[in-house]
Amino acid sequence: MDVLSYVEKALNVRAFNHKVLAGNIAHVETPNYKEKEVDFKQALERQMAGLNNIEIQEKTESDGVGSVDGNTVNMEVQMVKMNENSMMYNALIQIISKKFSMMRYMISEGRR
Prior knowledge:
- There is one protein chain.
- The chain is mainly α.
- It has one domain.
- Helix content is about 60%, strand content about 5%.
- It has a two-stranded antiparallel ribbon.
- The relative contact order is 0.18.
- The mean pLDDT is about 90.
């Protein structure tokens, strides 16, 4: 499998993960809402195997202090996860950009 298809699948998982994290943040004050998360490694392996659906796990326990209303979302943790996911997404975009830049260079035979 070539680099571009691998990066494409990784970008798809990162974009989906961003939606899940945004949903968690949107429901931070919803009673009995359970935090959802995506296992990136497992999701990428499923994408590589040709399975397009991404599994979402529901977190039933909160980290640290439990919420009185049953909500398991910790806003600070979600913001850190979203920031990490964004950085990884941007790194993948840079990989694609470098790959295309090299391809343009080879096509133009080193001329600018």
